[in-house]
Amino acid sequence: MRTLLNLLWFLFSGLWMALGYAVAGLICCVLIVTIPFGIACFRIAVYALWPFGYRVTERRDAGLASGIGNVIWFVVAGIWLAIGHVLAGIGFCLTIIGIPFGIAHFKLVPVSLMPLGREIVPTASPAYPGYRW
């Protein structure tokens, strides 16, 4: 089921979102100072391609620089990305068939708000608190 949802997501939403995040990542990497934001954009782009079966967790080794970077990201881009994901999620949830895709958009909100100091892991990973053998 996860594979089918990922394929449908790729067609309806994921490809366009991943391309947008990848272009933003390239722009951030060209501007040398914003390379950490570019790397975060590339991570989000991969997550936006295949969101089903993955979760976002906090990295315990993230420090003060990640916090400061997240504040800058929030002001410059994070709030607008989050608003876009919320609106797309609401739009998808208006139909019964689109509810899983709306939930996937809602899953992208926290990582689009504050991407630094986050890690994307499979749901069947020991790093995920709900991990079961």
Molecular structure report:
The chain is mainly alpha-helical and 133 residues long. It has helices at residues 2-30, 35-49, 64-93, 99-113, and strands at residues 54-58, 118-122. It has one domain (2-122). The chain has 4 helices and 2 strands; from the N terminus they run H-H-E-H-H-E. It has a two-stranded antiparallel ribbon with strand order 1-2. Helix 1 (2-30) packs antiparallel against helix 2 (35-49). Keywords: Membrane, Transmembrane, Transmembrane helix. Residues 4-53, 68-118 form the Inner membrane component domain.
How many domain units? 1
> How much of the residues is beta strand, in percent?
5-15%
User: Number of helical segments?
Assistant: 4
Following the backbone from N to C, one meets helices and strands in this order, namely HHEHHE
Rg, Å, rounded:
15 Å
Largest sheet: 2 strands, antiparallel
pLDDT averaged residue by residue: 86
Residue share in helix: 55-70%
Q: Report the span from N to C terminus.
A: 20 Å
Shape: globular
What is the total tally of β strands?
2
| Helix-strand category | mainly alpha
Contiguous uncertain segments of 5+ residues: none
Strand order of the largest sheet: 1-2
Short description:
With 133 residues, this protein is mainly alpha-helical.
List keywords for this structure.
2 strands, transmembrane helix, two-stranded antiparallel sheet, 133 residues, mainly alpha, YccF, YccF domain-containing protein, membrane, UCP028777
Q: How is this fold's topology laid out?
A:
Layout lengths: L1 H29 L4 H15 L4 E5 L5 H30 L5 H15 L4 E5 L11
Antiparallel strand pairs: 1-2
Helix pairs in contact: 1-2, 3-4
